[in-house]
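// run 5 | inverse folding | seed 20
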């Protein structure tokens, strides 16, 4: 029996109000697709977790419901750090997460999220969209049967929450800190014991004393987790993630099975959410920081120039060493560095002097 006949029978059954065997015809027969997206985030977590939900809503609206994406929070279908493998092998259709979580697959993944003393949000957008970043990312993702798009950005993050003040480089020695990606490696070089763990595990680990410090995102997200209840000092700036780009990846076979219009809808929904999240972070971080300081008596501190200089120097070494691990990562690093140099040259004549004058004069 062809699908066409099956639909006619279904319609007939509905009109006459009688159940027929054709009722079993799936929505797929009407051209609808239902896809599963696994994420590395807690359910509906502000920004990070709501972004995939918003992408699904945008796709649903733009396809008049023909493409339906069901979102699974970390742990619902697979664990946060298993999202990549789930999509690579086809257990899930899409993932939404931070690409540096997959650095075990290739060190190059760090550059498609955030690296210490790397790009800001505007700079990474420039690289991905115009500086050759997307092409390299496609090449990397294809090795794992995936295609990925940028789909959120947190802007500059905070340096993290610390139980004790960080006054000198010695204070990093033996510090048990949650910091993923290459930022964690920088911490290790300074003598800290850095660990990577999904967001949902940070608060209990801080509370139990398993870790002494943690970076997460910024005031809006950090307040949602309640870190001010377990640490007093909140350091800035987030040298480790100056503009974390988050991503949506899709299994390449699933991607190829979408119509050209559906592919463009998905890509566009991700791009729209990338822009929307950055706006939301910029707006809500400001208000949340004020609440943390005024209501919760959080002490905001800046890393000293001496500490920032050491972090910068160590970051450069860590990036160079990551790039030297394989020829592909070196190509990504060279492209990233060239685009960053380009952005910095222009920034030094535009945004930097402008914002400095606006603040100081
Ligand atoms: Ca972070």
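// decoded
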């Amino acid at each position: 029996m062809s699908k066409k006949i099956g639909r006619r029978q279904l319609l007939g059954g509905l009109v006459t109000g009688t159940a027929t065997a054709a009722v079993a015809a799936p929505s797929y027969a009407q051209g609808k697709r239902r896809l599963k997206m696994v994420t590395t985030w807690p359910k509906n977590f502000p920004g990070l977790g709501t972004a995939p939900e918003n992408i699904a809503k945008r796709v649903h609206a733009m396809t008049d419901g023909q493409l339906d994406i069901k979102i699974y929070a970390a742990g619902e279908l697979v664990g946060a750090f298993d999202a990549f493998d789930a999509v690579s092998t086809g257990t899930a259709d899409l993932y939404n997460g931070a690409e540096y979580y997959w650095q075990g697959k290739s060190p190059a993944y760090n550059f498609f999220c955030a690296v210490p003393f790397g790009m800001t949000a505007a700079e990474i957008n420039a690289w991905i969209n115009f500086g050759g970043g997307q092409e390299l990312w496609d090449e990397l993702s294809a090795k794992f049967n995936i295609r990925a798009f940028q789909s959120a950005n947190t802007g500059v993050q905070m340096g993290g929450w610390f139980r004790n003040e960080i006054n000198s480089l010695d204070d990093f020695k033996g510090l048990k800190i949650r910091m993923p990606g290459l930022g964690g490696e920088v911490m290790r070089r300074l003598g800290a014991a850095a660990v990577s763990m999904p967001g949902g595990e940070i608060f209990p680990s801080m509370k139990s004393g398993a870790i002494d410090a943690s970076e997460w995102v910024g005031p809006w997200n950090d307040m949602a987790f309640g870190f001010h209840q377990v640490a007093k000092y909140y350091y800035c700036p987030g040298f480790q993630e100056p503009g974390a780009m988050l991503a949506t990846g899709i299994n390449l076979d699933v991607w190829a099975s979408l119509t050209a219009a559906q592919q463009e809808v998905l890509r566009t929904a991700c791009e729209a959410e990338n822009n929307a999240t950055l706006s939301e972070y910029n707006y809500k971080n400001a208000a949340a920081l004020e609440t943390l300081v005024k209501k919760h008596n959080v002490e905001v501190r800046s890393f000293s120039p001496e500490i920032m200089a050491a972090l910068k120097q160590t970051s450069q070494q860590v990036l160079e060493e990551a790039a030297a691990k394989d020829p592909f990562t070196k190509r990504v690093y060279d492209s990233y560095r060239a685009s960053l140099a380009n952005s910095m040259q222009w920034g030094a004549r535009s945004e930097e002097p402008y914002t400095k004058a606006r603040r100081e004069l």
